[in-house]
Amino acid sequence: MLLPNVLAASSFVEVRPGLIFWTIVTFVIVLIVLRKAAWGPILSLVEEREKQIASSIEAAKRERAEAEKLLADQKTAIAEARREAQEMLRRNQQEVEKFREELMAKSRKEAEEFKATAQREIEEQKAKAVAEVKAMAVDLAMEVAGKLINERMDEPKHRALAEQFVQSLPAKGATERRAS
């Protein structure tokens, strides 16, 4: 039983010239058929795929360059927008400050005008009050003088005397106020 295994193993190593010839002929025929039928289309497919890959790489490079350019443009646009926003903010702050100053100046002017008007009114009222007091003093002086003298002078003479007396009153009062 050992012998058939040895014979089977020896058949692989045994050189058979007919088998070698037909193997070479079959290999050459398959090689020619493959070269004519399959090798050309395979090579053309490989070349076409190679061209597609190369064009894809070029397109990717172009797109990347374009994307980088767009990114740089966007960064520039963002920087410009920020600068414009800062400028607008600065201008708005200046306008607000200017408006505030104008409003303050207008308010001060109105306050000064109101104060001046109030002072004029006070002076007018004071002058009226002084005139009323003088008139009352004249009338009172006339009555007092008339009662003291027990004699009635005529009205114009009486009024002149009283006005003279009233004219001398403020000067005396002012002198006394300054002394105190």
Mean pLDDT: 83
Distance between the termini: 162 Å
Rg, Cα atoms, Å? 64 Å
So how many helices? Answer: 3
**Helix content class:** over 70%
Descriptive account of the structure:
This protein is mainly alpha-helical. The chain has one domain (16-179). Helices cover 94% and strands 0% of the residues. α2 crosses α3 (155-179). The protein is rod-shaped and about 185 Å long. The protein starts with a helix and ends with a helix. 1% of the residues are buried. The model has no long low-confidence stretch (mean pLDDT 83).
A few lines on this structure:
The chain is mainly α and 180 residues long.
Topology of helices and strands:
Layout: H1 2-13, H2 17-149, H3 155-179
Summary tags:
180 residues; mainly alpha; rod-shaped
